[in-house]
Structure formats: C-alpha cells, structure tokens
C-alpha cells in the first residue's frame, strides 16, 4: 500500500528519536492533565471561555487591529505592517540599517522561523543568534525545531554533547547541567554584544498596548536588558481585548504548554525602557505580520487563528508521538500544524494538503486545546477542500467501485452475501500487494455482512 | 511595504464582511481562574512563602538570614541597590564586597544582587519587578543569586489582582522561581540565563 508522506517519514525515524518524542510528549500531556484537574473544579469551562474570547477577537480584527495600533503608538512604539514574509524581513533590515546595527539576539519567536528571517539577515551580513537553549542547539546543528515549546525533543544529550564539542563549547560531557552551564557562559557574552533584540509576542493587549512574553529560561528578559532596540514580530491574530483576560489566558498557557501553574518569566512590555532605567531598549518596534493569515481568516477554518502555541495538541496526538515534528515539514507541526501549515501556503495549499489526512480524528487535540479549537472538524474541512480542488492523494485507494456499489441497493445486498466467500479464503496468501501490506500487522475480522439487516428485520416485525 | 497597512486591513475587512454575525466578547468574573482551594482564607505571607518554595525559591525575613544564606553559598561579591544598602551595610559589612553601581562589563564578578521588588503574588509564589523598582534590569538577572526586597504589604493575593495592578510602568516582569529549562531530555535544570537561586527578603 502506498504510504502517506508522514507515514513514510515515521517508518524511517530512528528508534531512539521515536522513543524520545513519544516519552517526552506523553509525559508532558499527563502532567498537564493532573495539574489542571488538581487546580480547578471545571477546567473545561476555562478552555471554552478562552476559546470564545479569542474567537471574538478574530471575528472583530477589523476593529481590534487599528485600535491596538493606536494604543501601541500612544506608548511610543513604532508600528509596521507586513503583508508577506519578505515585507516583514525588509522592515527588520531597515530598522537595523537605520541604527547601523549588525547583531541580533532572538528569543521566543516562531514567526521569525516562518518568515525565514535568519537566512535573510545573514545574507545582509547581520548575525542572528538564537538564545533559547533548545533553539540555540538547533541553530548550531543547522537543524529545525520539532516541537512548538520543546524544540529539541528529538535530540539526545549524547548528540548535544557531540555538537558542543564540535563547536568548541568544551570537551564531550553529556550531563544536562554541564550542557546548560556551557550555553549560559557562551550566550551571556553574546547578549551583551547584541545591538537589537527580536522577539515575538504571546499576547498583545488592545486595551493597554502591552506586549506579553513568557519564557522559562529568562532569555527574552536578557535580550531586553542587554540591547538598545526591541523589535517584536507579531502575527495579527495575537490580540487579546483587555489586561484582565490575561489572568485567564496565562493560567491556561503555562499549564497547557509545560504543565506549570505559571511560566517562570512573564514580561509585560508597553514601550521602550523607563527613562530612569539604565538597561534596555531605547526604541521599540512592532511589526504586524499577515503572511497568509488573512487567507485563513477568509477560509472556513478561521478558528485555528485562536491558537496560543502551547503545544498541548502535539503532546497528546498519537500521530505526532509516532512521527515526530519534522514529519510535518512545517514550522508548525502536530495537529495545529496540520491545519495551519497548509492554509498559510495560500494558493500553494496542495503542497501540504496531505497533512490534514494524517490524523485518526480521535479528537484528543480538541479536548486538550486551551482555546478549544475544533481541530478534527477543521481537518475534515481541509480534506474536503483538497478533494474539491482535485489535489492528488497518494495513499488513498481508489473508491470508484465502492461509490457505485454503495449507491445501488441491489448491488449492495448482493455484495453483502457474496462477501461471505472471504471467510473461506486464505487472505494472507492472496497475491494482492496492498492487502498483504495491510495484513502484515493486522488480522481481517470474520465477514458478517448483512447480520445487522436481518437483526433489524426481525425486530421491526 | 508602504501600503501594507491598508492592504492587510482591507483583506481583514473582506474576510469578515460576509459573516452574518460576529462572536460577542463573553462576560465573566475576572477572578475566574484563581485557585480558590489554595488561596481562600490564607495569610498572604504564609501562603507566599509556601508557594515560592514549590518553584524552587525561598522567603527570608531578616538581614541575618540573608547574611547566613550568602555565606553558606559562598556568595561574597555582589551588587546592592544604593537605596537599600544603608539598612544592610552593618550586616553585610565584613567579609563581603558589595557594589552599589552595576558594571555591565563585569557581570560575572557579581554572584548576587539585591534589588527592590514592586510586589509579589502569594497564589503563585511570584516576585514582581518593574523598571521603576529595579535599579538595573541586568543586575536582577545576571548574578547567580537574586534577592528581591518585598514589603509585606505589597504581597498580592492572586494573579487576577496582579494583572489589575500592572499600571503604567513600561516594563513589568513576574518572576516565578528561578530561570529554568527542561530542553535537554526533559530534565529540569535551574539557572539557564538568569538566576539559579531566587530569594524574596520580606520586610515590614
């Protein structure tokens, strides 16, 4: 049987990577559930409420965006708009050039991955350093993150120790404590040499013009203490109406993402540093990025824009656990990525139209989502979209014969009776490759076609 | 690029115009997410001390305790907010090297820093820092030990109250425990970029 791309990737995964991803995601999910139910009588009510708040924002972005822009400007923040990845990169470059800046330290931004900022800046002779430990390791290894909040869930300490040795960060030592200390020493010098800090934003508050950033390592704080300019690259969907909504969303984000009541550092930024403060940015910029989001907004999958990037749906997903994040060939992996990544491609949707099919539709992603996104429904809508647009679909058997049979009662009845023959056939020996592949790991159950019909007939009379 | 603002807003409008109705902003009690089981009827200092321990921080209530902790950890060179130093000088006088200006070219010289906090949150064991309260952002972040001085009356009960108290300061940061990561094989390590030890010195 022809495999879907994601299956092919999963079968080639090294056993230790598979084990690391499986264990890491499973543990994350179990801790999250325990914490939520220990702390709250009805955690589901909180998720659903948060979903309604975010849905309200998305459906009113036409008023929220200009209102948020106004508040940000009142706070002395420069606001820029970028309809494409290229435009966003160019804004960053212009800001850097105007300051004569050469070195970027980067924290907490998936959008920068999405717009491929690092490669762009490198081309223009600008150094761009990742500061989150996991992201830093990914960058050293010319690899890609494979999880939204645990970028190196696929890497073992042994691989990291070898990487550090190769890059002159000390002799081989795979103690996580030693690895962390070495990164600490290396990176603290780099922060202080940095000219510009680039971050994303977990939330932007329309009412107050505040940007909220959460990290556990304190890397975004270091970026914003050491450099003199802050650029926040923000997806247009990141808005929350009021400060008070943060009390709900921050509680959900920490628990859903990393099973913490609250992330270690939660930073509320409403402009450049205070005049009395010696450390920190003298200028602040916000770049609002579209890059396909308005296409998502116009689609029948706009609910995916509620996402707060916690990664809970990855941790719980049976497909993600088996396939790992790289199998999704996207910045956003897992169930959320299976919806968002093909949509963000706009007219190039067919390139990733296979992702929505890589799901058993078990519904676990919806159950854990802190903003209650109906991911299984959205996956189905995207499957329909692919079908309507005639996207070829490798791995799906031809269904023409089935369609004819299922639409003609006489043919259907005949097939139900004839099917009994299969009980007398040695199906495992049949020379039909797809059947053989299927039966390699499964047993065909006994054919009981028509049993329900005769049962119903008896009970109706 | 120049017209991207209008372009994006037009696309947003075009996407939303066909909607027959827009989802309303739900009304709810601001303290909905408060962990009542934990906070109800508790003395705030007691609760704060208990909760900060769970995130690997600690509360001390006297200058002598501070001195003993620093000596025990062999943290003898540090920075102190000049406004706080007169009250601490006698206790941290002998044996310690304490500077009241923070030199960013020598961050590794300081093993501890004492700065003023803007408040604390009992529910989560959080210390609140702001640009107004913190003399140097780098001082409260880069040394291995950070001691935040909090007045007892500044301890807030829960996050919903802390959000309401954010105010006008351009930079407020909640520190809930010490800098940490679990990036390498999910193993928790303290002290990644910021302090490995977070202490709150609560004063009257």
Account of the 3D structure:
Chain A has helices at residues 5-12, 15-39, 43-59, 61-74, 85-99, 111-114, 117-123, 133-140, 157-166, 176-193, 219-226, 244-258, 293-298, 312-316, 318-323, 334-344, 364-368, 375-388, 400-406, 409-418, 433-440, 451-460; strands at 78-82, 103-107, 127-130, 196-199, 203-205, 210-215, 229-235, 239-240, 265-269, 283-289. With 461 residues, chain A is α/β, with parallel strands linked by helices. Chain A folds into 3 domains: 5-12 and 310-388, no CATH class; 64-291, NagB/RpiA/CoA transferase-like (Rossmann fold, 3-Layer(aba) Sandwich), CATH 3.40.50.10420; 410-460, no CATH class. A 6-stranded parallel beta sheet of chain A has the order 1-10-7-4-2-3, with helices on both faces. In chain A, strands 8-5-6-9 form a 4-stranded mixed beta sheet. In chain A, helix 3 (43-59) crosses helix 12 (244-258) and helix 16 (334-344) packs parallel to helix 18 (375-388). The longest helix of chain A is centred in the first third of the chain and has 25 residues, at 15-39. The two termini of chain A are 44 Å apart. Chain B is of the alpha/beta class. Chain B has one domain: NagB/RpiA/CoA transferase-like (Rossmann fold). Chain B contains 6 helices and 12 strands. In chain B, the strands form 3 sheets. In chain B, strands 1-12-7-4-2-3 form a 6-stranded parallel beta sheet, with helices on both faces. In chain B, strands 8-5-6-9 form a 4-stranded mixed beta sheet. A two-stranded antiparallel sheet of chain B has the order 10-11. Chain B is globular. The model of chain B has no long low-confidence stretch (mean pLDDT 96). Classes of the chains: A alpha/beta (461), B alpha/beta (204). Chains A and B meet through helix 2, helix 3, helix 4, strand 1 and helix 5 of A and helix 1, helix 6, strand 9 and strand 10 of B. Strand 9 (265-269) of chain A pairs antiparallel with strand 9 of chain B, so a sheet runs across the interface.
């Amino acid at each position: 049987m022809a495999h879907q791309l994601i299956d092919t990737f999963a079968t080639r995964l090294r056993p230790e990577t598979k084990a690391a991803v499986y264990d890491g995601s499973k543990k994350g999910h179990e801790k999250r559930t325990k914490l939520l139910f220990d702390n709250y009588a009805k955690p589901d009510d909180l998720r659903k409420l948060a979903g309604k708040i975010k849905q309200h924002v998305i459906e009113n972005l036409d008023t929220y965006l200009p209102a948020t822009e106004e508040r940000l400007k009142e706070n002395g923040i420069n606001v820029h708009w970028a309809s494409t990845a290229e435009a966003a990169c160019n804004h960053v470059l212009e800001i850097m050039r105007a300051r004569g800046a050469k070195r970027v330290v980067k924290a907490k931004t998936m959008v920068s991955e999405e717009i491929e900022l690092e490669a762009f800046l490198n081309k223009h002779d600008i150094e761009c350093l990742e500061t989150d430990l996991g992201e830093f390791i990914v960058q050293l290894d010319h690899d890609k993150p494979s999880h939204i909040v645990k970028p190196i869930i696929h890497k073992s300490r042994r691989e990291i120790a070898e990487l550090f040795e190769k890059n002159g960060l000390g002799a081989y030592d795979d103690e996580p404590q030693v690895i962390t200390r070495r990164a600490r020493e290396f990176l603290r010098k780099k922060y202080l040499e940095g000219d510009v800090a680039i971050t994303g934003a977990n939330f932007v508050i329309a009412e107050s013009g505040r940007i909220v950033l959460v990290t556990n390592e304190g890397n975004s704080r270091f970026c914003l203490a050491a450099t003199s300019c802050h650029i926040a690259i923000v997806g247009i969907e990141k808005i929350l109406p009021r400060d008070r909504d943060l009390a709900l969303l921050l509680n959900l984000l920490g628990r859903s993402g990393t099973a913490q009541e609250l992330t270690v550092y939660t930073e509320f930024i409403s402009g450049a540093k205070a005049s009395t403060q010696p450390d920190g940015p003298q200028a602040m910029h916000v770049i609002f990025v579209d890059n396909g989001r308005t296409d998502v907004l116009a689609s029948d999958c706009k609910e995916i824009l509620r996402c707060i990037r916690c990664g809970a749906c990855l941790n719980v997903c049976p497909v993600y656990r088996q396939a790992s994040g790289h199998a999704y060939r996207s910045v956003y992996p897992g169930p959320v990525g299976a919806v968002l990544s093909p949509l963000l491609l706009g007219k190039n949707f067919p390139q990733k139209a296979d992702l929505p099919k890589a799901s058993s539709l078990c519904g676990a992603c919806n159950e854990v989502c802190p903003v209650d996104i109906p991911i299984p429904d959205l996956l189905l809508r995207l499957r329909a979209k692919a079908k309507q647009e005639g996207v070829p679909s490798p791995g799906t058997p031809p269904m023409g014969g089935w369609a004819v049979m299922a639409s003609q009662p006489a043919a259907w009845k005949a097939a139900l009776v004839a099917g009994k023959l299969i009980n007398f056939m040695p199906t495992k020996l049949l020379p039909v490759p797809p059947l053989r592949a299927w039966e390699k790991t499964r047993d065909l159950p006994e054919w009981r076609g028509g049993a329900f019909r005769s049962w119903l007939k008896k009970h109706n009379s | 690029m120049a017209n991207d603002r209008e372009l994006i807003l037009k696309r947003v409008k075009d996407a939303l115009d066909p909607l027959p109705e827009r989802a309303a902003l739900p009304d709810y009690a601001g303290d909905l997410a408060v962990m009542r089981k934990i906070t109800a009827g508790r003395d705030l200092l007691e609760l704060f001390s208990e909760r900060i321990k769970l995130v690997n921080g600690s509360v001390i209530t006297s200058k002598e305790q501070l001195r003993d902790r620093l000596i025990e950890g062999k943290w003898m060179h540090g920075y102190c907010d000049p406004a706080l130093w007169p009250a601490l000088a006698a206790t941290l006088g002998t044996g310690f090297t304490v500077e009241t200006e923070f030199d960013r070219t020598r961050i590794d010289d300081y093993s501890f820093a004492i700065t003023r906090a803007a408040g604390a949150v009992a529910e989560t064991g959080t210390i609140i820092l702001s640009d107004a309260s913190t003399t140097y952002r780098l001082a409260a972040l880069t040394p291995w030990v950070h001691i935040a001085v909090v007045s007892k009356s500044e301890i807030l009960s829960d996050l919903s109250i802390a959000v309401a108290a954010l105010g006008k300061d351009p930079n407020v940061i909640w520190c809930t425990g010490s800098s940490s990561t679990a990036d390498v094989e999910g193993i928790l390590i303290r002290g990644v970029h910021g302090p490995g030890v977070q202490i709150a010195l609560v004063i009257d």
